[in-house]
Amino acid sequence: MTVTPRIPPWADELPSDLNSEQGLQVAIDRIAWRNAGRPDPSDSGDWKEDDKLSYVFGRHSHDTLEIGGLKLRQLPPQLFDMQELGYLFLSNNRLETLPPQFCERLRLEGLTLDRNPLRSVPAELFEMPGLDNLSLSGTPLIDLPVPRQANPSLKVLILDDMHWLDFPQNFLSRFPKLKSLSFSRCEQGIIPQAVFNLPDLMQLCADGNPIKVLPAQIGQLSNIQSLKLKNCELTTLPKALSQLTQLENKAGSGGPFGLHIGGNPFKDKDLKRIAKLKNPAMTTEALAWARDIGSD
After folding, report:
1. Distance (Å, rounded) from C-alpha 156 to C-alpha 182?
2. Are 294 and 236 in contact (CB under 8 A)?
3. By the 8 A CB rule, do 264 and 274 touch?
4. What pLDDT is attached to residue 36?
5. Closest CA to 242 of 180, 285, 276, 213
6. Taking all residues of the chain, what is their mean pLDDT, rounded to a whole number?
7. How far is 276 from 165, CA to CA, in rounded Å?
8. By 3-state DSSP, what share of the chain in percent is helix, strand and coil, each rounded to 5?
9. To which H or E segment does residue 158 belong?
10. With 50 as the cut, is the pLDDT of residue 28 above it?
11. pTM of the prediction?
């Protein structure tokens, strides 16, 4: 009888034929490993050198738990007794629902649930006190439950690749302190009106949506520093876009900062040229174009 070797909790490469039972055991072992204070591999003479190296590079901070990619269909009960857990990564599992104790007993700052086959999530998920960063990208959720009360803690909400996503009325207004919102490739034909009533919004990413028109309300996002509208269906830009001076101020900082409009079917030849530039030139020239030629 062949005995399947137990997968060490610090392993950075998992077997390609990993099953959900093995994944659950790895998750349980990782929780126990965290709770035990992560023993130093130098104290274990029978560890292979490769195991020691994987441990050193694979360990995270004491308040972080990575149990993604384990094919989990359920969460280990031990998870809900973890003390000081702040950041939980659950991407690429097989979770269809979240148990009630998830929102009742965990006190998280960051939660990633990307690419799970979630059928629904409770409204309490969006009400979790202290939750700062939430990602649901690549999940098949259609209806997002509206929280019963405002949650000023949530600052970052990532909803990319949710192809059937529908923003319910009053959903976004429940997060009055939201700083970053991303809904790339979500088949959204417009930017939800509620977005323009988020005064603290600094980053908005709507790449890959069939958005044809930017409304004049875009000018209300006075704190926006990163606006990503690549590969949409925009044919022009509104004059109101030129009001977003923070975009120009931050465009030279690199990364996501500035205005990103490449891949749009603009009609104006000069605007087509601008869309092929790199930042900060793209942002500076696009805002100038919007001011002088943009639509009302």
Report:
1. 8
2. yes
3. no
4. 76
5. 285
6. 90
7. 30
8. 30, 10, 60
9. strand 156-158
10. yes
11. 0.90
Q: How confident is the model at residue 16 (pLDDT cuts 50, 70, 90)?
A: confident
Instruction: Say if residues 279 and 270 touch (Cβ distance below 8 Å).
Output: no
Can you tell me the distance from the alpha carbon of 237 to that of 294, in angstroms, rounded to the nearest whole number? Answer: 5
Tell me which amino acid residue 287 is. Answer: L
End-to-end CA distance of the chain: 76
The amino acid that residue 249 corresponds to is N
Q: Say which residues have a Cβ less than 8 Å from residue 148's Cβ, sequence separation at least 6.
A: 123, 127
Strand partners, 110: 87, 133
Q: Quick one: 201 exposed, middle or buried, by C-beta within 10 A (0-12, 13-18, 19+)?
A: buried
Domain at 12-136: CATH code: 3.80.10
Query: Where do the domains of the chain lie?
Result: 12-136
pLDDT-derived band at 1, boundaries 50, 70, 90: very low
Give residue for tokens 């809904």: 183
The distance from CA 289 to its chain's CA centroid, rounded to whole angstroms, is 32
